[in-house]
Fold this sequence. Notes:
Elements: H1 2-11, H2 22-42, H3 57-77, H4 81-96, H5 113-120, H6 135-145, E1 148-155, E2 165-169, H7 171-176, E3 195-205, E4 208-218, H8 220-226
Protein name: FRA10A associated CGG repeat 1
InterPro entries: Folate-sensitive_fs_Fra10Ac1, Histidine_acid_phosphatase
GO molecular function: phosphatase activity
Amino acid sequence: MANFARICVHGSGGYDSDFSDEDGQGESSQRGLKRKHEEEILQKPFQKGRHSKVAHRSSHSNEVDREEARNRRAHLISMNAFERHKKFVGDYILYYGGQMVDFKRSAAKDKTDLDVLRENHRFLWRDEDEEDMTWEKELAKKYYDKLFKEYCIADLSRYKENKFGFRWRTENEVVSGKGQFQCGNKRCEKEEGLKSWEVNFAYVEHGEKRNALVKLRLCPECSFKLNYHHK
């Protein structure tokens, strides 16, 4: 009988606790909220939280790289093209070795506009000459179109060798009357007794023999030089 009574006591839920009832649970929850609220009030603005997360080392490294890239980009933008060129060349020599002499540009093949005109000039342009036009030929053709092709200017300095040079007049020569109202010999400025001549000019241009009829206005002395071998 005694054993049965003890079991009944145990089975009837005789165990009791201050924290097992609902009233006790509500009281404990209120105390936790109050404590959390007090901690928030006492926490300083610059103070980190108790359970704040620490950034990974790779995040810091990536941020540093981005900041360095921004600074480098801003520095390059602030330089002009020549300064950037010198910086890149200096960096290349620093990292890969070498000397500044290796980067010096050779001026052996440099050409001026006058050099290009001399190489591609034609006394007369024909339709076949305008095929496969390069920028050099276009430059020479543009200069040719600006010339006046009514009268020529002659070089008679080698008339005894039966060698003559002819070229078309420029705008300044047309305005001044050179070659029409003044002797067409480039070394003569006489204006009296001028006579017109039509000459069959035979010449070699770019390895090809050509000829053209040109007109000249020459004084009596220069006319004698022009016809020296046909007098």
